[in-house]
């Protein structure tokens, strides 16, 4: 029994660290996207000024600037899509952590012998079960949203 308990505790810690590292990676990527957005915005402003101010420029030059502007818009849309995916992943991580915490609380109540449980214990156990079901349903909704998004991109 003690070995089994230590193994579960170790696995829980590893899962928690994995979620933490994933959250950090997502946060870093979101910050990178924000910086890239600013850079693209500045490039777009420069190109717009060039397109508006240069009436005497050759048509080829204007076409090139317009193509660059369109490329920036496509890149920005791509980054916005990635940012949306990352925000969904953040929500999923939060729900995963919440589910883990509720699962731990529920295990404490379930490990208690039935004859020793008070009515308050039973009520708390039911409350945790309801919360756990809500979290699972929220995670299911997120997965459904991701699947719909993936299908719409195809």
Automatic annotation (TrEMBL):
Principal location class: membrane
Pfam families (UniProt xref): bMERB_dom
Key word Nucleus present: no
Alphabetical keyword list: Membrane, Monooxygenase, Oxidoreductase
One of the record's GO molecular function terms: monooxygenase activity
The organism's place on the tree of life at top rank: Eukaryota
Subcellular location: Membrane
Span of domain BMERB: 13-154
Protein name as annotated: MICA1 monooxygenase
Native species: Urocolius indicus
